[in-house]
Amino acid sequence: MSNFTEVTSGLSFPEGPIAMPDGSVVLVEMFGPRLTRVLPDGTKETIAEIPGGPNGAALGPNGLFYVCNNGGCFMEAQLDGLTFPAHAGPDRWFGGRIQTVDPKTGKVTDLYTECNGVKLTAPNDLVFDEHGGFYFTDHGYSHDRSLVQTGILYAKNDGSMIKEVVFPAHEPNGIGLSPDGKKLYWAETWTGRVMQRDIVAPGEIAEVGIVDSSVCLYGFPGFQLLDSLAVDGGGNVCVATLVNGGISVISPEGELIDFYPTGDIMTTNICFGGKDLKTAYITLSGTGRLVKMEWKRPGLPLEFLNK
Q: CA separation (Å) from 269 to 22, 39, 77, 226, 250?
């Protein structure tokens, strides 16, 4: 078990943590459903109620929070004292969207609900580049015998442009950028793979061949599922690993160099904050906790947050 400290508990499936400069952590509670600020003493404050399923969040260049909302494609399930996401039926799922939240007023605004006439299904996680645009994963939606295949998208922060840059992707989840901004990483939940593609211009991804092993940075052995991720200052991909329950660290060369067990099989996300970005905040969604621990490498500064 890794040596960590509990920041707060009683969260309703926390995800998408953002370590703020004032020492607080803003995160989503998917089954809240809401955007929540956790103060250093563990006190929780609701920033906004967000109907559906807020699944990931990031701070944009305009001071707004950008939220991936899966549209209620998951519902809360309990098993052996742990919380899990179960697939919801079409009567509950109303379609995914990218939303903004004004931290001063709590106003929630739909920014994108479709791309070129195709509705978003279940946006999951997002990351901003230095140009103010953001990449995000659409996790897809499955029910009974149907599965909606999705991909990776890029959009401008003002609602003026959205496009698909990778298709298909197999239930993509966490997403991040390399320190130089030239490589895009994402995790596929059920395949247990961390994928990578080169970025040739803002929102432009390099073409690859139909069989190209370089697009897979690392494939996990056995039954290990993946959730969200963060990149550290050395370019290592720190990915939340389900079932195994912890944070796996993959080098830019595609080697597993560290694993930090948490004791929660629904370990879903990590972000970096604190002095020198060497404090890791980790969401343990199965037990509804936010924890922190000292990290031996500094995190990668995020655009519009740590720089």
A: 20, 18, 19, 10, 15
**Cα separation, 124 vs 226, whole angstroms:** 12
Domains along the sequence of the chain with CATH: 9-221 (2.120.10.30)
Virtual CA dihedral for 210, 213, 217, 223, nearest 10 degrees?
A: 90
Query: Which residue type is seen at 223?
Result: F
Six-digit token string for 180: 């130089």
pLDDT digits (tens, 9 = 90+) for 80-130: 999 999 999 888 999 999 999 999 999 999 999 999 999 999 999 999 999
Name the percent of the chain in helix, strand, coil, to the closest 5. 0, 55, 45
Other beta carbons within 10 Å of 21: 9
Residue at 178: amino acid letter: S
Q: Do 295 and 278 form a contact (C-beta atoms < 8 A)?
A: yes
pTM of the entire structure?
A: 0.97
